[in-house]
C-alpha cells in the first residue's frame, strides 16, 4: 500500500511539472488589458505617494516608459495601469504569485534574489549606510556596539548588518521595521540608535524630516546596491522588452531629464531639492547597460 501511494505521489508530481505553463507576462497583460505595477508609498524619490495620493518617482517614471513600450509591442494603446502598494517583506511573493507584473521601487539586484526573481538593467547605484542623530556622535559600526538598531524587514540591508554584527561581534540588537517610515521613526524617537538603509533613500527621509539638520548619514559605505526593476523569473521575452526600453531611454537624453527631475530639482510634496548629481557608477551603468550584481561592474 505504501509503495503504491508513493508511486501515485510521484506520478502526480511528474504530471504537475509536465503541465506547468511557462512564464509569459506579456500574454497575461494582453489578456487582461492591464499591467500591475508594484510601487512603494514612502521611498522618495524613487516611488512614493505625493500630496494628491498619486504614485510618483524616478523608478515609477522608468516603469511608465516601459509601459509605453509594452503598449506599442502589444498594439494596446488603451492598456490600463494598476498601481499595487508593496513593502520589502512582500514584494517577491507578490511578484511570484502574479499579483504584480513589474516592480518600480528600490530593490537591489542580488545573487540571492535572482534565485526567485529576475531583474532589468541597473537603473541606479546606491550603498548601504545608516542614519542617526548628530547629537549621538555615531560615526561607524563600532560606535553602535551593544546598541539597538533597525533595518527594513526583507531588505538586503538587514541581511548585511546581521552578517556584519555576527562577524565582528558588535552585539547590536537588530529590529525589523515594516517600512522606511517606521524605521526612520524608530530612530527619530530613540527606540533605535541608527537606521540602516540605502543612502539615497536615507537622504530623502532626512530631507523630509521635521528637523533635517538633526540627523547625519554615515560616511563609510557598507555595500554597493544596484537597483533594478524586478520581474518574474524565467520570462526571457518580457525581460528583453523591458531592457530594450531602458536601453533606448539611456541612449537618449531622456534619462538625464528624468534623473534631474527627481534628484536635482524640487520634488513633491515639500518642494525639496535633494541636489544629488548622477554618480560616476550610474553614468557607467547607463553608458553600458548591465544587470550585473558584481560591485566591480560599477567601479
TrEMBL record:
<feature type="signal peptide">
    <location>
        <begin position="1"/>
        <end position="20"/>
    </location>
</feature>
<protein>
    <submittedName>
        <fullName>Amino acid ABC transporter substrate-binding protein</fullName>
    </submittedName>
</protein>
<dbReference type="Pfam" id="PF00497">
    <property type="entry name" value="SBP_bac_3"/>
</dbReference>
<dbReference type="GO" id="GO:0006865">
    <property type="term" value="P:amino acid transport"/>
</dbReference>
<dbReference type="GO" id="GO:0030288">
    <property type="term" value="C:outer membrane-bounded periplasmic space"/>
</dbReference>
<dbReference type="GO" id="GO:0005576">
    <property type="term" value="C:extracellular region"/>
</dbReference>
<dbReference type="InterPro" id="IPR001638">
    <property type="entry name" value="Solute-binding_3/MltF_N"/>
</dbReference>
<comment type="similarity">
    <text>Belongs to the bacterial solute-binding protein 3 family.</text>
</comment>
<feature type="domain" description="Solute-binding protein family 3/N-terminal">
    <location>
        <begin position="34"/>
        <end position="266"/>
    </location>
</feature>
<dbReference type="InterPro" id="IPR051455">
    <property type="entry name" value="Bact_solute-bind_prot3"/>
</dbReference>
<keyword id="KW-0732">Signal</keyword>
<keyword id="KW-0813">Transport</keyword>
